[in-house]
Input
Amino acid sequence: MRALYSVLFCVLILACGEKKEDNSIYLPASNGNLNSISVVVDNQLWEGSVGESIRDIFAAPLNGLPVDEPLFSMRQIPPQVFDGFATRSRIVLKIEKGNIASTTKIVNEAFAKPQTVAVIGGKTNQDIIDQLKENKDKIVDAFNKEEVKEKQRRIGLSLLADEEMENKLGFTINIPSAYKIFKPSDDFFWLRKNLSNSKTIELMIYEVPLETISKGDSTVVDFVKMRNGITKTKIPGEDGIFMEVQGDYAPALFNTIIDNKPAYEVRGIWRMNGFTMAGPFITYAIEDKINNRYLVADGYVYAPSLEKRDYVFELESMIKSIIIK
Output
């Protein structure tokens, strides 16, 4: 019981601590690489079944990448050295084992700002593992939202002037100024960010009628048909070469919310028909009933030999800033 009380006591102390002149609570700025978790856990637990469970959940392969990359990177910190600068990580998973009831608590801005801390407590290893499995979706979602918010903050430091696109399609989006718009039209916009040696991150934004994507067992089939039609007609290559969804890698479909509207999230692999090129894509089709359409934001990456998780995450963060007018 003492271990969990110590965590809650720290939170209370910080909540009642030193205040600035504007009466806001003083907290140091958080730090850390995006999508990197500080795991505060005893060495013995980390090396045993609890550590295995943590890695199975938070280092699981991210959907839609051609080569396995972890959902989050992790660094383990023993509790006895979790102090000072070490407490400022933006996302923290803290494991407490002792004579305490099984519990999972998510605390915002406990030691730094912005920050999300998930505290897992239990009497035994199995109690802790059960809490992790039972609450994994909630914890991953909380960590992801924190990281998206931070990425969007960084994007907002230098934005692309894209008013023409936004006005024609009736929405707003925050895109870094490093992107450039190619082949603009009334209903289709194609943006690109050059990385190096012909490697790129690209984003297509367009709209389709609501009936284009049905709700039910054929949603993924309708999506693949829609995307293949767009890429074949809007960004064709030379000599009949065109982009298509890779047929032997079924896209992963999720339901989500963007701008308080239902949306489909689809992750998968694209390839060039007739040429050796491929990579991951992430697409959001946002239901806009007022305008009888789906607003579709479709990002993809071409970066052979490079890790692609963070590039896809950049696309995800951009797309999640969309607000439909």
Q: What stands out?
A: Residues 109 and 115 are 5 Å apart (CA to CA). The helical segments are 2-15, 43-47, 49-58, 125-155, 163-169, 219-234, 309-319. The domain at 163-324 is CATH 3.40.1000.10 (Protein Transport Mog1p; Chain A). The two ends are 51 Å apart (CA to CA).
